[in-house]
Amino acid sequence: MNAHVDGLFVYPVKGMTPQPLDRVRLTAGRGVPFDRTIALARPDGKYVPGMQHGISKREYYVLVAEERLAGLTTHLDTATSTCTVDVRGHRVLTADLTTEEGLAGLRAFYARVLDLPPGSEPVVARDEGRRFTDTAHGSDEQMEYVSVVNLASVRDFAQRIGEEVDPLRFRGNVHVDGLEPWSEFDLVGQEFTLGDVRVRGTELTRRCAATEVRPGVGRRDLPVPQLLSRTYGHEYMGFYVQVLTDGDVRVGAPVA
Questions:
Q1: Pairing of strands 146-150, 174-177
Q2: How far is C-alpha 117 from the chain's CA centre?
Q3: d(CA 219, CA 210)
Q4: Where are the domains of the chain?
Q5: C-alpha distances in angstroms, 137 versus 148, 194, 223?
Q6: What single-letter DSSP state applies at residue 70?
Q7: Residue 224, class by beta-carbon neighbours within 10 Å (0-12 exposed, 13-18 middle, 19+ buried)?
Q8: CATH class given for the domain over 1-256
Q9: pLDDT digits over 51-107, tens only?
Q10: How many CB atoms lie within 10 A of CB 201?
């Protein structure tokens, strides 16, 4: 391989805006720090605080069903637990999630955004030691997988369908460039390094309707799973890796 890390991202709140990173410290058996550690759960759903098993992403408010969320620019300061939301460059919410006042403000704001009926608000899901990743329903080990997107595969897909495809549609933690298109299929079951960190490819990422939503816009404009199936005979884009050793990954680091 002659490849490098092109981008690093963390998604502190499931379904919300990616936050770019210059570097990240990874620990064996763990995912990206702060990634998907908060979610907005449906008040009438299956989420229960402190639950010890994963549940379907549809139990949370995420892009697969609520595309309007992509029209908000969110940011979580992981040092202070302060969450901000901007709409078209204007700050519409600042909430300190360490206080009940801040949590109440967050719940009320998203109740309005999601057009929930009076008296109904999202549940702010935060459970010590757990992540709300799409792999969390499988096992605690899978909950800590890191998602990787091969940019060459995204470009090949875009060329074949004749459309611009933003790789952020696929909400990966790591963007890798310099690989052959679709070579990630061969990396499942293999060990390799991202910067200083040794990882193992674990499984391909099957894509859902969340990828139909244009990042930053809040509307569906491209039936990605359908187009993947029609073009390649599968609905995969990207893959998951398990972290095997402690170390740093930075933008520009080699993939070897």
A1: parallel
A2: 28
A3: 10
A4: 1-256
A5: 19, 26, 25
A6: G
A7: buried
A8: mainly beta
A9: 878 888 999 999 999 999 999 999 999 999 999 999 999 999 999 999 999 999 999
A10: 19
